[in-house]
């Protein structure tokens, strides 16, 4: 089994930009623990799908061997810059690009200086892959792909990793409930936008920890609608597609608000 | 200081393909041309803009998305390379622009007075979005007029359509007051496509115009209907049907720039000048101008006509 670990992590840059803010500390600590678990699983590569890298035509995959720079989030620019330094597993990525055509999804590589790497990918890489030690596969969120297509993309990563004898840590980057506060709030008072969102999120997290992949998969559309989940919760589909028939267990490492939206760090054992 | 005024508003869409087709030195990729009708439309708009000699260009872009509030560029000079995340093969543009920070701050303050969440963007490392840059390049490739860049809070997406458009109406009114208060002679640029249905794959040669046509016939018919109304100055009717147009043609003007511009101009019932129309990967794009300087009699400030 080439998938050696899998993680659901938040895409909001707030825990990276303001790690000391009390409502976000649980997520920061959870991200740290996830980083340790990821390292302990001894992967050769991390395969990331971030809801915030949006594509419209084709499925895009990052193919630039070395990405380095500073990013400023378009909304949270007042909190400073987000440095990044990432390497790409170009061989595995090229294999994925070639294979998606077989199920009717045209893929393209992206190899451009100063391509705008998204805040979610940078945040996940910052916490899970400090110093950019491990190479990455990074796939875009095509807005017109549904959960089923997203699962097939992740399954392609698994199959190609198997063929190339890679051990993969799979990472789905995105939020839970999507309702944010539209006003300025005191960040120290951040909380879930509504009790209903909180309830939906907690129910979804319980489903994850029940480790029944089929039941979890079946519950995704209703949850996505009720909680206005980030991008239809396709980052969970990425994880399910990569994990294949199921997984052994899951543990919620942290859960909390990011400007009213729901965020969680969940570790899955394949 | 004399009272400022809005000289004109332009509907100035931002497909990066137009910059790619033109081959300016700032853009890395080279093309064999393409999208000539729209580029010629922009040539006409460039001439009329030149005649107006504005102090400042204000542009509202749907590709600077801010979830919390309406943001304004607030750094005097910004530069860098803007790479389009959707079409990086077509748009990798080195930009340098001057920001009219005083006017931006006035817009921000007036928006706050309107009860909107408004913020200044002060981070010097901020990368300006490709929508802002494409519209500004197509309108004024010399880059010699200061700009005010305004983000899309995307309130029409997040709120009910009517609530969202009402917010953009208030943002437009706030913008007008800021222009008047600071004495600027300003031109507004609404960086929006009309029908936004598009193809899901790109031709091997992106500028192969034998592949370019409207993606959706119903959307095309909606575009023609809206343009006809705008050309006749039927502003009230346009805003009455706007929610239907947005829903049925997936129009990008939902992101707010069009309503912002018309609110700032006072919803003038004057004929819009169509400089040209064309499709880009199937989406409908019109370059249009409302020259307020030529219609001083009809310039009372009016409230937004609504479907009700």
What does this protein structure show overall?
The complex is a heterodimer of chains A (270) and B (308). Chain A is of the alpha/beta class and 270 residues long. Chain A has a single domain (3-269), classed as LigB-like (Protocatechuate 4,5-dioxygenase, Chain B). Chain A is 37% helix and 26% strand. In chain A, the strands form 3 sheets. In chain A, strands 7-2-8-1-10-9 form a 6-stranded mixed sheet, with helices on both faces. A two-stranded parallel ribbon of chain A has the order 3-6. In chain A, a hairpin with a 2-residue loop joins strand 9 (249-258) and strand 10 (261-269). In chain A, helix 5 (147-163) runs parallel beside helix 8 (234-243) and helix 6 (195-210) packs antiparallel against helix 7 (213-226). Chain A starts with a strand and ends with a strand. The mean pLDDT of chain A is 96. In chain B, helix 6 (161-182) crosses helix 9 (257-265). The mean pLDDT of chain B is 94. Chain B is α/β, with parallel strands linked by helices and 308 residues long. Classes of the chains: A alpha/beta (270), B alpha/beta (308). Chains A and B meet through strand 2 of A and strand 4 of B.
Mean pLDDT across the residues of chain A is 96
Give the termini separation of chain B.
Answer: 40 Å
Strands of chain A, total number: 10
Number of strands of chain B: 10
CATH architecture of chain A: 3-Layer(aba) Sandwich
Helical stretch tally of chain B = 9
Biggest interface pair, residues each? A-B, 29 and 34 residues
Weakly predicted, low-confidence segments of chain B: none
Structural class of chain A: alpha/beta
The helix fraction of chain B, in percent, is: 25-40%
Nearest-angstrom radius of gyration of chain B? Answer: 18 Å
Short key terms for the protein model shown above:
heterodimer, A: 270 residues, alpha/beta, Protocatechuate 4,5-dioxygenase, Chain B, six-stranded mixed β-sheet, two-stranded parallel sheet, 8 helices, 10 strands, 37% helix, globular, B: 308 residues, 9 helices, 36% helix
